[in-house]
Amino acid sequence: MAAERRAFLLALAAVLLWSTVATAFKITLTYLSPLQMVAAASVVSFLFLLTVILVQQRQQEIIPELRKHLRYYLALGLLNPLVYYLVLFQAYTLLPASQAQPLNYTWAIALTLMAAVFLGQKIRKRDWIACVLGYLGVLVIATRGDILGLNFTSVAGVGWALLSTFLWAGYWILNTRHQSEPVLTLLLCFGISLPFSLAASWYWTDWSGIPWQGWAAVTYVGLFEMGLTFVLWLKAMKLTQNTAKISNLIFISPFISLVLLAVIIGETIYPATVIGLVLIISGLVIQQWRRRTRVAGEG
User: CA 118, CA 111: separation in Å to the nearest integer?
Assistant: First the structure.
């Protein structure tokens, strides 16, 4: 019971921190460009993950793992964090965060479609239902409920947001072909992408004049988007005997995020956004219900 309680608290902490990320993205983008944001946040994430590896005394694994799978990590690192976050932050630049964040939750649906194409996995009836509900939710959010008029807030913004979901799904598909320790994998991905993001941001952007608020905001993003929060979530998954119960916590994150966006940066939360988000989450729940029920029974 003590382990389960600790797992629940760790997972809840991770979910609450992830709930703040959309707000942090929007604040950071007022000071930095998407390219600068990727570069600076990647440095923070890399340093944090390296610290974790050093504390675990596993630093001797870094170079052999990289040498053994150099081309794999090069492809993976360029995909995530470099390209994925560039695309995601561009979506946040063009859309209100209250729209961009729910759209990003359709990545699990994108994963189903890509797994069918690249891994030959069968798409079940419940997967098709999830697709219909999920992308109907996207349409409701993107048009603010004006589905018949197709009056999009930003067609380009919606396109970037949806592209980010397929990039993220592609990252996880590549991960299925290589089973290595997650923190080490993430460290190598961030490390191998750093020379590219830093060089590109140095060449194409101007780093002068960024106030301390911008540095504080991007540090927060780097730490809590894929740094500390990721480690907390992994620890919770290792401690629990009921992964379904813990995983269900993730569904409260987008709703908390909408509240924070309204309170902290004053974004208007349209009823259509909430309705669309409910449709997306409903599709995800339907898609995962049978597997979650089976796992829960085994726990």
Answer: 10
